[in-house]
Amino acid sequence: MLLHSSCLTLTGFDENATVATPMSEPAAQSHSLRIAFSVTIAILAAEIIGGIAAHSLALLADAAHMATDAVATGLAWWAARVALRPADHRNTFGYGRATVLAALFNAAALFAAILLIGIEAVHRLQSPSGVTPSIMIAVAAFALVANLVLSVYLVRTGGDSLNIRGVVLHLIGDGIISAAVILAAIGIAYTGILQLDPIVSLAATIVVAFSAWSLVREAIGVLMESVPASIDLAKMREHIRHMHPMIEDLHDLHVWSLADGHVAASFHLHVTMDTVARAQELVRDIKTDLAKTFAIDHTTIEIECTDCQEACS
Questions:
Q1: I want to staple 267 with a disulfide (CB 3.0 to 4.6 A). Which of 26, 49, 155, 253 is the partner?
Q2: Class of domain 228-312
Q3: Beta strands at 262-271 and 296-305: parallel, antiparallel or unpaired
Q4: Would you list the domain boundaries of the chain?
Q5: How far is residue 117's CA from residue 174's CA, in Å, rounded to a whole number?
Q6: Could you tell me if residue 26 is left (phi over 0), alpha (psi between -120 and 50 degrees) or otherwise beta?
Q7: CATH code for 24-223?
Q8: Residue 117: other Cβ atoms inside 10 A
Q9: Nearest of 259, 275, 252, 264 to residue 222 by alpha carbon
Q10: Residue-wise pLDDT tens for the chain (313 aa)?
Q11: CB 247 within 8 A of CB 269
Q12: Greatest Cα-to-Cα distance within the chain, rounded to the nearest angstrom
């Protein structure tokens, strides 16, 4: 606690608080993403070979999407390793936002892949070409199973992380396209309608685009220091006033994400002279309560006293 010379303001903070991403979280992410990167490379190689052999746009589109998956997973892996760095004199909050930047880049890469696939699909609709359904089904089935297994694995090891979610979104998108390839191949085998290949590709990319936009909005929200979607400022304000009735006023309330999964808050409290004597206890109780109720792990509270100036004079 710091008492200013004016005797009007007390600033509460936790001297032992750390806002850098805990070592265990990015370390676990790095291990999981290393495995994911290896698997995506294997799937990519299979889809490129299969797409060329089957003359399938849908399968090559899947391969193009998997290429962005590989880049996205590699970037996410790098970001998880960067997040391991401790805070320093230039980055006092640590490097946790590297994972948010990676998630934003991954979403942007998804939109680029969707655009390229869409352009080629329109071209194939106008000039359809023959495909080999059996190869399409075999390769797409392999990719579908691998993507689903890898997605489940990543969700279990770090599903709350924007960085991990960005990679999982890529994998699910590729899984959707793989399933679409299988349906297109079956349809072509039974009907001979070659346009099913690009039509299914277009439908799958639209589904992926909606999911990518959701990730973009959330990543931008962190970078813009918006209030996390899980926190209602009005309810938080009411909760603090209800739990601590000695507070006369609460203002300048700010809540934002320091990094992926780490929320910070700061606000001013108006209290009476009688409460100042136990201000340190009040600040400690509020911090503990906010951490438990709202998962806020870094809180700065400034105590303002209405009667302090008279007491000092």
A1: 253
A2: alpha beta
A3: parallel
A4: 24-223, 228-312
A5: 12
A6: alpha
A7: 1.20.1510.10
A8: 24
A9: 259
A10: 444 433 444 444 444 444 444 434 556 777 788 888 888 888 888 888 887 887 776 677 677 767 777 777 887 777 777 777 777 788 777 777 777 787 788 778 778 878 877 887 888 788 877 778 888 888 889 888 988 988 888 888 765 677 787 788 778 877 887 888 888 889 888 888 888 878 877 877 777 777 678 778 878 888 888 888 888 889 999 999 888 888 888 999 999 987 766 889 999 998 877 777 788 888 999 999 998 999 898 899 998 886 665 544 4
A11: yes
A12: 93
Q: Please, are residues 282 and 274 in contact by the beta-carbon 8 Å criterion?
A: no
In contact, 138 and 50? CB cutoff 8 Å: yes
What is the C-alpha to C-alpha distance for residues 11 and 267, in angstroms, rounded to an integer? 10
Which residues, 6+ apart, have CB-to-CB distance to 210 below 8 Å? none
- Residues near 24 by beta carbon (within 8 Å), at least 6 away in sequence: none
Beta pairing class for 262-271 and 249-259: antiparallel
